[in-house]
Design brief:
318 residues; mainly alpha
């Protein structure tokens, strides 16, 4: 689940923080990096658990309505939403249950938000269409939650506030983690019952090593990388670069030199995109040009042993 996009974001944040911190301890900083990545995996489970929490709240309302209908002899309310087959499967998922059992934070601590979200769901068009549909298939039950998640959980300022109170890391992570929650919903199949596999924390050991190696290379070779920057900045106004720009380029150079299988232009594109998020409006243009110059310089002196594509393709993630 923790992909290289998220790893790069965390390394940008943690490298910047490392240099801002007077007490620079690489081992401590590396532990902080790995901890911050693990918190993203915690958020993944926590957001899946939100679906279960909303359904439990729905059951309370349903039981009240059912008791009232029986008392008054009126029509029995539909149990379609509370008996949603996808949620029943998610609720008994062994991995999710095991993870939640080890955590102090639960949605019981934020019931006011859960109740409000349930109310928003019941007032939504998606809910109305689902409840009025004759389709009682597992696919329909799974699809309604995919739609509800996209419309009411992904873009939810109040939820952002709740998450920020629970962890300083989670707001930065949520946009990426949301995509993995949606991917998980689509992957659920009824025949897997409670043994349905959730996404692993890392795709493989290589991605976990990528985080450690990139961060260490960035810090340990900082002087050399900044020398490469100054050597190739003659056509650029180096003094106009924000400090974050230097950090971003330092990490990009570390990636170019440490990972032979990642194409140069993929690395450049990734860090130009990060500059758009974390630095000044003009930074991405400077960084794009400087990293291109740095890469060509490193190739020319035999330090970088990778080809340079003439026309980089955007959005080619590694």
């Amino acid at each position: 689940m923790i992909n290289r996009e998220l790893i790069r974001i965390k390394i940008v944040q943690l490298t910047y923080a490392y240099y801002q911190n007077g007490n620079r301890n690489l081992d401590v900083a590396e532990k902080e990096l790995m901890f911050s990545l693990s918190k993203a995996y915690h958020l993944y489970h926590y957001l899946l658990a939100l679906i279960v929490a909303v359904t439990k709240e729905a059951r309370k309302h349903y039981e009240v309505e059912l008791a009232k209908a029986k008392r008054e002899g009126s029509d029995i309310p539909s149990s379609k939403f509370v008996d949603n087959k996808f949620v029943l499967q998610l609720e008994e998922n062994k991995q999710l249950c095991d993870f939640i059992s080890t955590q102090k934070q639960t949605w019981e601590d934020s019931m006011e938000f859960v109740r409000k979200l349930y109310s928003q769901i019941t007032q939504s068009r998606t809910y109305a269409d689902y409840m009025s549909s004759d389709d009682s298939s597992y696919e329909a039950d799974r699809e309604v939650w995919r739609k509800l998640y996209k419309t009411l959980i992904m873009e939810n300022d109040e939820l952002d506030g709740v998450l920020e109170e629970k962890s300083l890391y989670w707001n930065d992570d949520k946009e990426i983690v949301d995509t993995f929650v949606l991917k998980t919903i689509k992957r659920f199949e009824p025949e897997n019952s409670g043994k349905q596999e959730l996404l692993p924390e890392y795709k493989d050991e290589e991605d976990k090593d990528f985080a450690r190696k990139l961060f260490r290379a960035t810090i340990l070779n900082a002087d050399q990388y900044q020398h490469y920057m100054s050597e190739t900045s003659r056509n650029w106004d180096f003094s106009r670069l924000a400090y974050m720009d230097v950090v971003i380029m330092q990490i990009a150079i570390a990636e170019m030199l440490t990972f032979p299988n990642i194409p140069i232009n993929v690395t450049i594109n990734e860090y130009v995109d990060l500059a758009k998020i974390y630095s000044t409006p003009k930074s991405s243009g400077y960084i794009n040009g400087m990293l291109d110059s740095i890469a060509r310089y490193l190739i020319s002196i035999g330090v970088l042993l990778k080809p340079m594509a003439d026309k980089p393709k955007k959005n080619n993630h590694q």
